[in-house]
Amino acid sequence: MKSSKCSILTGFFGNFLEHYDYALFSLLAPFLAPLFFDQKDPIVSLILTYAMLPLGFLSRFVGSLFFGWLGDHLGRKRALCSSLTGLSITTVLMGFLPTYAQVGMMAPLGLLLARLLQGFFAAGETIGGAIFVLEQTENRKKNWMSSLYDASSVLGMLTASFMLFLYSHSAQEIYWRYLFWAGALTAIVALILRMASKEEIKPKIRKEKKFNVFLQYKRVFVTIALVAGFSSSIYCLAFTLASGYIPLVNSITKNQIVKINTYLLCFDMCILPLFGYLATKIGREKQMLIGALGTALIAIPCFYCFSSSSILIVSIGRVLLVIAGVVFSATYHVWAQDLVKQEHRYRILCTAHAVGSQVIGTSTAFISLWLYKASGWIAAPALYVICIALLAAWAVFTSMHTHKKREVQRLISYTAFDTT
Predict the structure, then answer these.
(1) Confidence of residue 1 (pLDDT cuts 50, 70, 90)
(2) pLDDT at 72 exceeding the cut of 60
(3) Percent with pLDDT over 70 in the chain
(4) Per-residue pLDDT tens digits for 124-175
(5) Is 96 exposed, middle or buried (0-12, 13-18, 19+ CB in 10 A)?
(6) Could you tell me which residues come within 8 angstroms of residue 200 by beta carbon, excluding any fewer than 6 positions away?
């Protein structure tokens, strides 16, 4: 099967935008908190801002059901064009939100509603784009292409980090609005390219009850949700949480953290293709196990690194977390797609990813910061990270049996076909 360059490019563009929007809000959180909440307690304001990340769970879940059904029944391209259009509109709206000084308590409410809408439309983008790209990629290149697709995610985060770096050096308070509007312009370009692309694969759909497919894949659903949750969590830990947490526990400033983020994201984007290639040599499940168990081992030492006032030591802690995240996540999309039949992929993968990334992943910043405030222990957030890392390792280990069983079934079917 030959991959369409235009199709791959459009998949990368949409994924870039989704992660730009997510990273922009996450990284802006320390700056937005005093604008949208009462400034009496800066830690409480930051906790409330971070709490908006997991609160998008309901909208993402509903969005994943809607776009999952659309992608499986009417085609991947139609679902992706619809989600990208909605995502661009809500990104523009984010830039027009009034602040606490302008409308009082209506400001955080408006921010929450905008995030809910953004979550709904983003639900079908990242996973749908991965399906769109990998279904048109040769099997021997899928691990590498999965890592490149994740690299486009990091590129979106890197762009958001760089734009935030410019914002932190700008005297204009309105500059944060321009960052959201810039994302909408990118969406228009991506939408034009996506509408011009061809959809080479259209799944064969059988008549079935809407929720029977979820019962059929209930064990796989939980497995993917746990893995997606940890994959989202490790990136949230290394970038989102660290941006707000480190300035609270040492003398490093927000502006210095933003600068470090940019360098770390460049490093992340460069090593993703490397581990995508290595997965073809050692096996994707083995590599994912190494990433999960490695994270559990280094979590506490990394948080002690964060308490240091040395930029070098803080950077070392974050680099270790980034490497662990890349090792685990480089081939996530291929791993997940191998567990689900083509005609059910959009629904199962989007919904499971929405549940895992929202319930486990985006809760990381909120729960971790709460653990620190409640206990006063610098490494308290690591306890949450260790728990979800071990759950992810268990999920990957159990999936190895499922994958082997499916490969045996395929071999039997091919053998039976050859004998006939």
Answers:
(1) very low
(2) yes
(3) 85
(4) 888 888 888 888 888 888 998 999 998 888 888 888 877 777 766 654 567 7
(5) exposed
(6) 1, 4, 7, 135, 136
In angstroms, the CA 256 to CA 302 distance is 18
pLDDT higher for 229 or 26? 229
Token code pair at residue 387 = 């728990």
Calpha distance 126→134 (Å, rounded): 12
User: In CATH, what number does 5-197+212-419 get?
Assistant: 1.20.1250.20
Asked if residue 210 lies in contact with residue 344, where contact means CB atoms within 8 angstroms, the answer is no
pLDDT tens readout for residues 305-332:
988 888 899 999 999 999 999 999 999 9
Q: How far is CA 312 from CA 141, 256, 320, 353, in A?
A: 37, 12, 12, 34
Q: Which residues contact 239 (CB under 8 A, 6 or more apart)?
A: 23, 26, 27, 157, 161, 261, 264, 265
Q: Cβ of 254: how many Cβ atoms within 10 Å?
A: 16
User: Which whole number is the average pLDDT over 9-19?
Assistant: 80
Q: Which of 73, 398, 413, 83 is nearest to 213 (CA)?
A: 73
DSSP 360: I
Return d(Cα 314, Cα 264) in angstroms, integer: 12
What ranges do the domains of the chain cover? 5-197+212-419
Residue 22: CA atoms inside 13 Å, Cβ hemisphere, count? Answer: 31
* pTM metric for this prediction: 0.80
The residue ranges of DSSP E strands in 126-228, in sequence order, are none
Q: Of the candidates 148, 202, 201, which has an alpha carbon nearest to the alpha carbon of residue 332?
A: 148
Express each pLDDT in 19-47 by its tens digit. 888 778 877 777 778 788 776 667 777 77
HEC sequence for 50-81: HHCCHHHHHHHHHHHHHHHHHHHHCCHHHHHH
